[in-house]
Write a structure and sequence with these properties.
Chain A is an all-alpha fold and 335 residues long. Chain A is 75% helix and 0% strand. Chain A folds into two domains: 57 residues, no CATH class; 225 residues, MetI-like (MetI-like fold). Chain B is mostly helical and 328 residues long. The chains are: A mainly alpha (335), B mainly alpha (328).
Chain lengths: 335, 328
């Protein structure tokens, strides 16, 4: 197991390096001038000096290695300094956003809480909803509940978030007026009324995102439960005289959760990536929205860093899912 | 015993044989009669199984109606999607405009049909690219052991790419360049279709590789290899026909994913331009007027959801129908 984990980690390193190279090359290949938005009155020699300051005049390979150094050495050192008050990163150049001229990671740190709150909560809600639905529709296979659940999850997967989000705004914000349609990030929760406000503005985005999670996970859990319900150990448990709830909720559910947990783990990177579309609809200024604005503004360091962070998260959680599978299911042996 | 040596038709031979055996031994004869029943194309069996799946049948009907509607609709409903009717701006549904008009007075039914054409064309073309790439990688990786490792690493690499951000970046960066070469509309079509295709082939490749690995060990492949068939012909004649089922299922589901991806891009303003709108773009354009004219958002949204839902149901039904273990 440890061997396998180490081997997977070793494979992950070149994978990530390759991805970083792809992301870097894609952005560099593209036409687009970081100084395009500067006034045309700037004289050419000043323009040239600005290019030097941004570091875009160096050879590509130097730019790439510099970016890697900034990403893997300077930024962690800076984070360490912030935490422990040391001065390792003093004088080192951090990754600077072309858009705001402030360090990319500072902006990400500002945006991350909103994304984690909204998207993370939606994931938790969606998963918690999916568990009873999946269990019930497997236990009562082909019942009305199962049919309805299957149909609703098909609908949940088919209705894209930009449509369900708009529908929800139309119904709950415009016609009924229950919830605000725009997420207010400046809201400080310090009293019960502001807490209520916060809850009200989170309801709609969480609802839209949770529907997708619920639809996906309940379907996985249903088929996994169905696989397990027909197994011999279930008959054994029943014939020993165990109560039906113990058989289903303890024996079958525990075994059925193994593949589902890995599916849940695989969905986690999406939380950090933010829901680009949903954040855009409800004006949540999280990571997804940050990426979109950076793309619009041609802010290459920001786009590069964010995309690469997403890639790291995907690789890491893939690894976590595989290892979890091995830990949870003793039948799986990695050699 | 009937003389069969002159007969070339296998069916006649089988029937005659069955009749002869039936006379001698009724039990064995009955089995043979079953064999002698008119040989059926395997696709009839698939269709029989597909018909049992109510959801899939409904899905197929709905998708067929939408497809026919957007392809042949413009020949029946002859208002141009760009014609501006100043007398009917933001009009509700009426006989002259069954879906109403947008704030510029353009007929929504005509716009929905032309948008649907592009949306479905994007879905189909992207699916074809993705299936082609996936099948190619899957078959090559499964068949040639030397290439298996590198190709599967490549697949893993693509699976680890954050797809939506990369798609957005690709569209943002290369839109202008391609538009200069191919013209605005064609450029964006080619860009979006190839971007979606290139980032969505990995699942197909994995499924196909698994199937090919299993097929390669079967006797008929061994037999054809032992008579010296070159790999290319083994793949075309023996391997590909046998991996058709999983490919068809993932092709169907691929249309749905591609339509959704395209509409997400259009919705974020990085897809098709407003004068060449898809359903996603129509929805995006409608959001501005959503409070006063919700139908601007509803029609395209319903169209996308219905198409995706029906295609997903078709895929579900196909998966059941193509799996001989589930056949009754």
């Amino acid at each position: 197991m440890l061997n396998y984990a180490i081997r997977r980690l070793l494979i992950a390193v070149p994978t990530l390096l390759l991805i970083s190279l792809i992301v870097f090359a894609l952005l560099k290949l593209a036409p687009g001038d970081p100084l395009a938005n500067m006034p045309l009155t700037i004289p050419p020699e000043v323009r040239e000096r600005m290019r030097v300051a941004l570091g875009v005049n160096k050879p590509l390979i130097v730019q790439y290695l510099l970016w890697l150094k900034q990403f893997f050495v300077v930024e962690p050192a800076h984070a360490f300094d912030m935490l422990f008050g040391t001065h390792f990163s003093a004088g080192m150049q951090r990754i600077i956003s072309w858009q705001t001229r402030s360090p990319v990671f500072d902006i990400i740190a500002q945006r991350l809480p909103q994304t984690l709150w909204v998207v993370g909560l939606a994931y938790v809600v969606g998963t918690l909803l999916a568990l009873p639905i999946g269990v019930l529709s497997a236990y009562k296979q082909y019942s009305i509940f199962d049919q309805a659940g299957t149909f609703l999850s098909m609908v949940g997967l088919a209705v894209p978030p930009f449509f369900s989000g708009v529908l929800v705004i139309l119904v709950f914000a415009v016609y009924l007026g229950w919830f605000p349609s725009i997420y207010n990030t400046n809201l400080v929760v310090d009293s019960w009324s502001s807490f209520g406000e916060q809850v009200r503005q989170m309801v709609m985005p969480v609802m839209v995102l949770a529907v997708q999670t619920t639809a996906q996970i309940s379907r996985y859990l249903r088929s996994s439960m169905l696989d397990n319900l027909g197994q011999d150990y279930v008959r054994t448990a029943r014939s020993k005289g165990m109560g039906e709830s113990v058989v289903v909720l303890v024996h079958v559910l525990r075994n059925s959760m193994i593949p589902v947990i890995t599916v849940i783990a695989l969905g986690l990177p999406a939380i950090f990536g933010g829901a680009i579309v949903t954040e855009q609809i409800f004006k949540v200024n999280g990571i997804g929205q940050l990426l979109i604005t950076a793309i619009y503004a041609n802010d290459i360091p920001m786009v590069q860093t964010l995309t690469f962070i997403f890639a790291i998260l995907i690789v890491v959680f893939n690894l976590v899912a595989d290892l979890l599978y091995g830990v949870l299911d003793p039948r799986i042996r990695y050699d | 015993m009937t003389d069969l040596s002159g007969s070339k038709d296998p069916k006649a031979v089988a029937e005659a044989l069955a009749a002869a055996t039936l006379a001698a031994d009724p039990v064995a004869g009955a089995e043979l009669t079953a064999f002698a029943a008119p040989s059926r194309n395997q696709w009839w069996d698939v269709w029989d199984q597909f018909k049992v799946h109510k959801g899939a049948l409904t899905g197929a009907a709905v998708f067929f109606i939408i497809f026919v509607g957007v392809v042949f609709g413009p020949y029946v409903w002859r208002i141009s999607p760009t014609y501006i009717d100043f007398m009917a701006m933001s009009a509700g549904p009426s006989w002259s405009h069954p879906f109403g008009t947008d704030p510029l007075g353009r007929d929504l039914l005509a716009r929905m049909m032309s948008g649907g054409r592009i949306s479905i064309a994007v879905g189909m073309t992207a699916m074809i690219i993705s299936i082609f790439l996936g099948t190619l990688v899957g078959v090559v990786a499964g068949f040639f052991r030397k290439l298996d490792g590198p190709l599967m690493r490549l697949t893993d690499l693509f699976l680890a790419l954050p797809v939506l951000p990369l798609l957005l970046v690709m569209v943002m960066l290369f839109r202008q360049a391609l538009a200069n070469v191919l013209g605005v509309n064609m450029g964006i079509f080619v860009l979006i279709v190839s971007a979606i295709g290139v980032t969505s082939w990995m699942r197909t490749a994995r499924i196909v590789r698994g199937e090919v690995l299993a097929l390669k060990e079967r006797e008929f492949v061994l037999a054809s290899r032992s008579i010296g068939t070159p790999p290319r012909r083994i793949i075309m004649r023996h391997v590909l026909p046998n991996v058709m089922s999983p490919i068809m299922v993932s092709a169907t589901l691929g249309i749905a994913t591609a339509i959704i991806t395209e509409s997400v891009l259009s919705f974020l303003g990085l897809g098709f331009p407003p004068d060449f709108p898809t359903w996603g773009r129509l929805l995006y354009d409608g959001i501005e007027y959503m409070q006063d004219y919700p139908e601007l958002v509803l029609w395209p949204g319903i169209a996308i959801s219905l198409t995706v839902l029906s295609v997903n149901y078709i895929g579900d039904g196909l998966r059941d129908a193509l799996d001989p273990r589930l056949r009754r």
